[in-house]
Design goal:
Rossmann fold; globular; alpha/beta; seven-stranded mixed sheet; 259 residues; binds S-adenosylmethionine; 7 strands
C-alpha cells in the first residue's frame, strides 16, 4: 500500500458522522432507481454507507473496498451483510463488470483523475452508474493552512515526504473528461454550512481526515505543536459564535454518470 498507508482512525472520522453522512445520502439520492446486482463502495471507510447501499438494494452483492485496515475492521464488525476487501484503489480492479460504482469522499485522495475516471467507467456494464462525491476545499483556509504549516521551518523538515492530497479537477474539467464517455452526466457543487460544536471544532474535523497524513508523519513531540498551531489558525479563520457554534462552509463536487 502506498500513499494510503493506514493513518485513518475510524473513531475520530466518525466524530462528525452526521455532517459527513449528509452528502453521502444526497449523492445516493441521485442514483436512479434500478435493480443492480453488483454494487461497489470505493473507499468504504467504516462501512456505514455500504450498509445504506445494501438497504436500498437488498438483492445486490455490495462490496466495500478500502486500503485502511483500521476502517475495514470497523466495517466488517458493523456491517456483516456486506463484503469488504482491502486494496489500493489506484490498482484495484473488480472481477467482472459492475452495476453501480459509488464513492463518497475518497477519490480526492487518488492522483491522476484523467486516467482514474475512464478506468472506473471501464468497470461498468452498459447502462450502469458511477456516483462520486469529493470535497472541493483546496482554496479554503481549512486546507490552505495545513499546507502553509507543513512548509513552515518548524515542520518542513519532517513533512517534505508527505503526499499532498492532490487537487481535484474543476467541474468543467470533469465534464470535458467524461461527456464523450458517458450517456447521462450530471455534475454539481454544493456548499454545506456545517454547524460544528465543541472547542476547536474545525481542527477536530480536520484531524479525522485531511490533517491525518501530517500528524502521522511528524515525530511524537512535534504533533501537539502542529495541532496547536493549526487549531489557532482555524479559530481565526472560523471563529466560534456566542452560541457555541462554529460555522464551516464546506464545498463538495458531485458527479453522477451512466455508461
Ligand atoms: C474520508 S474517508 C470516506 C469514507 C466513506 N466513504 C464515507 O463517506 O464515510 C476516505 C476513505 O478512503 C480510503 N482511501 C483513501 N485512499 C485510498 C486508496 N488509494 N485506496 C483505497 N482506499 C483509500 C481511506 O482509507 C478512507 O477510509
Amino acid at each position: 500500500m502506498n500513499a494510503t498507508t493506514d493513518f485513518w482512525d475510524a473513531k475520530q472520522y466518525m466524530h462528525f458522522g452526521n455532517e459527513r453522512l449528509r452528502p453521502a445520502l444526497d449523492l445516493l439520492a441521485y442514483v436512479p432507481e434500478q435493480e443492480p446486482q453488483r454494487v461497489v463502495d470505493l473507499g468504504c471507510g467504516t462501512g456505514n454507507i455500504a450498509a445504506l447501499l445494501k438497504a436500498r438494494w437488498p438483492a445486490a452483492d455490495v462490496l466495500g473496498v478500502d486500503s485502511s485496515a483500521n476502517m475495514l475492521e470497523a466495517a466488517a464488525a458493523a456491517v456483516p451483510e456486506c463484503r469488504f476487501e482491502r486494496a489500493d484503489l489506484a490498482r484495484w480492479q473488480p472481477e467482472g463488470l459492475l452495476d453501480v460504482i459509488y464513492s463518497n469522499a475518497t477519490l480526492q485522495w487518488l492522483p491522476d483523475h484523467p486516467t482514474l475516471f475512464p478506468r472506473l467507467l471501464s468497470f461498468l456494464r452498459g447502462g450502469s452508474w458511477l456516483a462520486v462525491q469529493m470535497p472541493a476545499m483546496h482554496d479554503a483556509p481549512l486546507r490552505k493552512m495545513q499546507l502553509e504549516l507543513a512548509r513552515s521551518p518548524s515542520f518542513a523538515p519532517y513533512l517534505r515526504g508527505v503526499p499532498q492530497q492532490p487537487s481535484i479537477l474543476s467541474a468543467e474539467n470533469y465534464y470535458d473528461l467524461l461527456s464523450s464517455r458517458t450517456g447521462k452526466l450530471d455534475i454539481w457543487e454544493t456548499t454545506y454550512l456545517h454547524t460544528l460544536r465543541g472547542a476547536d471544532a474545525v481542527a477536530e474535523w480536520a484531524a479525522g481526515t485531511s490533517l491525518r497524513p501530517y500528524l502521522d508523519a511528524l515525530p511524537e513531540d512535534k504533533r501537539a505543536p502542529f495541532r496547536t498551531a493549526y487549531a489557532e489558525a482555524m479559530r481565526d479563520a472560523y471563529p466560534q459564535r456566542e452560541n457555541g457554534v462554529t460555522l464551516l462552509p464546506f464545498k463538495r463536487l458531485f458527479i453522477v454518470a451512466n455508461v
